[in-house]
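INFO batch 0412 | record 1 of 1 | parsing
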Amino acid sequence: MLTRKRLRRLEAVIGSVSDTTDTVVQENDGKFADDAFLHFGSGSGGLADLINYDSKMGWSASDNRLQIIPFRPTVAEQSRAHGLHIDLDSFFTGEVSGQNRGVTINGERANSGADITGDSHDWGLSVEYTNRAQLAAGAYARAFNVSAQNRQSGIAAELRGAMIAVRQRGDGGTVGIIRGQQTDVQVNVGAAVATSYVEGHRVEMQLEAHGPAHSDTAGSAAFIADQRTDGQYNNLPMAFAVRNRGTSNCDGFLYGMDFYDSRRPTCKNAEIRMMTADSGGLPCIIATTTGTDDNSIRADLGADNSIADGSIAISVVDGSGKLFQKQNDVWIDMQA
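INFO prediction complete | emitting tokens
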């Protein structure tokens, strides 16, 4: 039963509450039901101010759900307000071995008596944001934001911004589609055209320090497709695929892959590096260059002992573009 005494214990941590009597706030073993809310706030303007200008939590009978309704403060903290702030500083303490999770949302649909049919969905976490206002120039809207930092000589084996895991277990039944992540970007007919970018996914790399040496198990990359299958199976996955699912008159993508930037070169050594069957193990490359002969191409792309024979160099020079192939450690003009 939720008594006034117990509420006072809450008040010491979360602020004043709306009830002003010394009796039970809600009957039935302290349950909040039928549009009953517990109010949180300073109440500096009296009880009416607390009820009308605070944040509240309770049960909404009309929506049939538990609701947390934050109220934006009218004084102070205007530059960075938080509707719900969970402070975990006192949680991430101690020096014992363990796995610490600040917030966990866990749900499991049973294998009997819980089947669903029709247009049904299960979402563990749903975040929705809609903007109808005129945001100032430079302002942006994010539906979801995640940040992880390492500071003050902190040491960790890994630092991850996020991880998404989708697993079809060995005892799982048939699943039509297994997808680790999907990003939908839509600009509907009649909508205003974006003035800058329309992107499905962007990785911004800013490594202002010498990174680890590149090898099979180390190095820096904006994107890695890592094949971890144990065994040999048919229909292997593709590391990268492009599809056109538009209407019959959709022209698809402008380019399947784009390395062009009018401001400066996008790749230092080569646009594409591939495996080689050569026992020497040198990489086979396809690269653009401003070189026009063997010496100038080697000066641009690298020494002979760093590039496999069979590699292709496209000389991009206005008025004299040519195609070269590396043969027996010499870049040969294929048009000569």
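INFO post-check: DSSP finds four helices and eight strands in the chain.
INFO record closed
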